[in-house]
Write a structure and sequence with these properties.
Length: 136
């Protein structure tokens, strides 16, 4: 049986609850693509990308959380390996959704800066975890 540290167990439980939010995002997308909400092409593509990134990154984040338990990482590097992808799972979807909100928006607003910020945290998290796994 896999032994999780208390912080990993609690984090995993909380993250699993976010799936309900992602699920409601799917309901929102049904409204958008069903024509029940007036949206621009930019908004449709950004809303779809935000939803997809949320789902994929939450799954990858849970996997990273579990894999971190198999490393000898400590301190900030352990935190980054365990939760970097989960932080990106907040930043990147937020960047897609927040930068596309507003009636008739055809170009992203300044919230688009969350996308590269999330990408940096994502990369740092997976590279740190990979190093922890490969180096023991």
């Amino acid at each position: 049986m896999l032994e999780l540290s208390d912080p990993a167990r609690i984090t995993a439980g909380i993250v699993l609850l976010t799936v309900v939010g992602i699920e409601s995002g799917g309901f929102f997308l049904l409204k958008v693509f069903g024509g029940r909400l007036a949206t621009t092409d930019l908004q449709k593509s950004f809303f779809r990308a935000g939803h997809a990134h949320a789902g994929v990154l939450v799954i990858l984040g849970l996997l990273c959380l579990l894999l971190t338990e198999a490393t000898g990482l400590t301190g900030f590097l352990r935190w980054l390996a365990a939760t970097g992808v989960l932080v990106a799972a907040i930043l990147m979807p937020a960047g897609f959704f927040l930068s596309a909100i507003g009636t008739g928006r055809t170009a992203p607003n300044r919230a688009v800066v969350l996308l590269p910020a999330g990408a940096v945290v994502l990369g740092a998290g997976v590279v740190t975890l990979a190093g922890g796994l490969l180096l023991g």
